[in-house]
Amino acid sequence: MSTEIKKTLIKGATLADGRVCDVLIEDGIVAAVAPSLSDTDAVNFDASSMILMSGLVDLHTHLREPGKEDSETVLSGSRAGVKGGYVALSAMANTSPVADTAGVVEQVYRLGKSAGLLDVFPIGAVTQGIEGKVLAEIGAMADSVARVRVFSDDGNCVSDPLVMRRALEYVKKFGGVIAQHAQEPSLTSGSQMNEGIVSATLGLKGWPAVAEEAIIARDVLLAEHVGSRLHICHLTTAGGVEIIRWAKARGINVTAEVTPHHLLLTDESARSYDPIFKVNPPLRTEADVMALRHGLADGTIDIVATDHAPHPGESKECEWQEAAFGMLGLEHALSIVAATMVETGLMDWAEVQNRMSIAPARIGGYGDHGRELAVGAPAHVTVINPKAPYRVDRDQLQSKSRNTPFHGMEFAARVVATFFHGEIVYQEGRGA
Amino acid sequence: MSSVLPAPDISRALSRIAHEICERNNGASQITLLGIPTRGAHLALRLAQLIEKIEGSSIQVGTLDTTLFRDDLRLKAPRALMPTSIPSLGIENRTVILVDDVLYSGRTIRAALDALGDIGRPSRVQLAVLIDRGHRELPIRADFVGKNIPTSISQSVKVLLSETDGVDDVLISDGSPS
Amino acid sequence: MKHLLSIADISRSDAIKILDTATELARVSDTPMKKLPTLRGRTIVNLFAEDSTRTRISFEAAAKRLSADVINFSAKGSSVSKGESLKDTAQTLQAMGADAVIIRHGASGAPARLAACEWMSGAVINAGDGTHEHPSQALLDAFTIRKHLSQGREDLQGLRVAIVGDVLHSRVARSNVLLLTKLGAHVTLVAPPTLLPVGVESWPVAVSYDFDEVLESVDAVMMLRVQQERMSELFFPNAREYSRYFGLNTERLNALHPGAIVMHPGPMNRGLEITADSADSARSVIVEQVTNGVSVRMAILYLLLAGDTSIEAGL
């Protein structure tokens, strides 16, 4: 960022609603949006045949800092994020130390600011040490500079129903939301992959769908009972989609997310025993994948969230049981959503903008984001080329880690540029 | 391919070998015929029948597979094992007569001698072959030969027997670069 | 066939070839020398990360009878350190010039990972991985059944086999289900519902919770070992209830038809899944299974290592 670029004129872009427009960005703000604009002071950015949408917002990212900087840092994660078209990430609390105090969330917040590539919104833990027993200092975290509104023990389930009830009640004070990682611990002790035909053949301990669905069912009823907001992380089963649908029909204030990998991959991938496919919650069946796609298309599932989970090489170059759970996601999320939802005709680009920018920003309470290129809003913009086929190469990632299950796969759509406060923080072909 | 020992000649050769075996060994009471599968085994059975007619008593006959003792296993695809069946009186202190269809480099017979050594200690070992085509790579010789056929290395010799191939014949193909 | 990882990878004709080869090699044990020069110069490493005296000794005997050099590598200690162990071990084996690695490991899929990785190039033989498979055990079981019951047939067509016990955690059961059905046998699994895997409906077997009902019509009963730990994991209430409903006691032994045989992969929990009388009865081929194990393992080593497996010849 050596020269001060005050004005950028994005020309000929196709907006999410289908209109072809020019967009003028000035001093970091969206100044004008119209079919044809000109401005001689502005630097032109040719976006013909490209899709332009409000910058992508991730509600579920593991940035690993503090504590596991060998796999990722806030900086490297930010670089990965902007390459994937993201202008906002939500840093999950299962760091080391856990983000269960104002001190840690402020540290993460400041690391995001100093990286300067996108907004990092720290997520606070629900319970101390994410141990599920005693509430963390939720109020202090909400009041801190980081202004935390989303709380999650992700990595662990808040399995004690009383603790979950108290947490749901407590965040009502400031309109916060509890994001639950739904996994009944006693049904999944030592589990390695989805429980089903594949796990029975492979001799790997199963992780039954009911262990996820039972918690979701319990929590939507709790949320209804106490009148609070609930968010379900990484939904993976057809049964879970039905429970969410039922809950919303009843007027329960619940939202849900799905990851790109759960839209694309099934438990058949585990047959190779390659732990690159080991993830929590696990990859499920083809029927589940289809239900998730339809759930995302009809809005039962509100958003796509990456659950970007970096791991160092030694955690994946071993036998399945020893390997860590988790996959990278930031850099290929958009491509995968395009392949599974747009290219299959299930959603259009306007819905993609909703699921990946507008709705996540709304759930997280990130006021500057998901503003749909409104004039006067901060210019957080993602530019997408829907027809730029490429092959995923795990040696060409921005992330510090290489645990992507998509290595070698081909996708048609890709992010070509990301604007944050009007500055280009990522452009393909340029050293990021 | 040209025929160098058609069916009637094969019969005569085997008949002669059967007589020679009896003559050399003063009868057949001490001999055990062991044919090397596949075709050697069939030839051994035929010789046994011929000798039984000559001597008027039953003959010890069996098979000896040499696969496990070959020195060229690593050069080819893994080979299936053929049956080894040692007749009731065993080989200890008996005269074992190995029977094979073609004697060439001698390596199969070297392997057969090693295989025998693992089973026991015959008092002597003799070798009967239908065809000796020369080009020995080891100091091995046959005691009983159906026919000597000088060949060049580029030629190939094929013995056909009715038990396996439907017809008795011995064919030589002229060397053609493969 | 470069590796032996899973029965699922072996065709019916390959399986029969292994059994036929084992039949020939069984003879070796009857000769005075008990040794063949076939694999001389080959280095075979026993990589046993899980305790097993029986299988390891069986493979060692098989390798030595073929004159291979055997190195025993117990990785038990180092398997505690996460991640490094399998990869480091593989690289060490490669440096040692191992032509084959016989691996027993507590993690399902560890042999597959070893075979798929770039860290070593030798043949990988699965001697039991987690709860996934134990191919050589299934082959020796099929060999034993064929020897007693097939009456000259090359396969097990029409024979009825019951596999009884903790199927959920049994790699022996998984391999046997695959192999016995591949060879034409009809397999029934007998176990309490808690010890059958979700998804067993998709297996080509019949399932029964009633041992007595199945007994009268089977030709071979294969008892599986039940571990004491399963009780603390709530799979069944106690040993008494388990033995009462699923143990092979004298009464059940007598309900078998005259020619039926009793099998067990070992080690046995005498008194839990099988009574001492049943284990020692005339119908029991349990000790013979051990002998057959050496011949079958010799066949496996021979077919994987003696020839040049890069040349396709049906195996």
Largest interface by Cβ-Cβ < 8 Å: A-C, 24 and 30 residues
Mean pLDDT of chain A: 96
What does the oligomeric state look like here?
A: heterotrimer
Number of domains of chain A: 2
Strand runs of chain A, count: 20
First-last Cα distance of chain B? 15 Å
**Radius of gyration over C-alpha positions of chain B, nearest whole angstrom:** 16 Å
CATH topology of chain B: Rossmann fold
Low-confidence stretches of chain B: none
Overall CATH class of chain B:
Alpha Beta
Strand order of the largest sheet of chain B: 3-2-4-5-6
How helical, in percent, are the residues of chain A? 25-40%
The tally of helices of chain A reads 11
Number of strands of chain B: 8
Report on this model:
The complex is a heterotrimer of chains A (432), B (178) and C (315). Chain A is of the alpha/beta class. Chain A folds into 2 domains: 7-52 and 377-427, Urease, subunit C, domain 1 (Roll), CATH 2.30.40; 55-364, Metal-dependent hydrolases (TIM Barrel, Alpha-Beta Barrel). Chain A has 11 helices and 20 strands. In chain A, α4 (161-170) links the parallel β9 (150-152) and β10 (177-180). In chain A, α4 (161-170) crosses α6 and α7 (238-249) packs parallel to α9. With 178 residues, chain B is of the alpha/beta class. Chain B has one domain: Rossmann fold, CATH 3.40.50. Chain B is built from 4 helices and 8 strands; from the N terminus they run βαβαββαβββαβ. In chain B, the strands form 2 sheets. Chain B has a 5-stranded parallel sheet, with helices on both faces. The model of chain B has no long low-confidence stretch (mean pLDDT 94). Chain C has 2 domains: 7-134 and 291-305, Rossmann fold (3-Layer(aba) Sandwich), CATH 3.40.50.1370; 135-286, Aspartate/ornithine carbamoyltransferase (Rossmann fold), CATH 3.40.50. In chain C, the strands form 2 sheets. In chain C, strands 7-6-5-8-9 form a 5-stranded parallel sheet. A 4-stranded parallel sheet of chain C has the order 2-1-3-4, sandwiched between helices. In chain C, α4 links the parallel β3 and β4 (123-129). Chain C is globular and about 55 Å long. Chains in contact: A-C, B-C. Chains A and C meet through α5 of A and α3 and α4 of C.
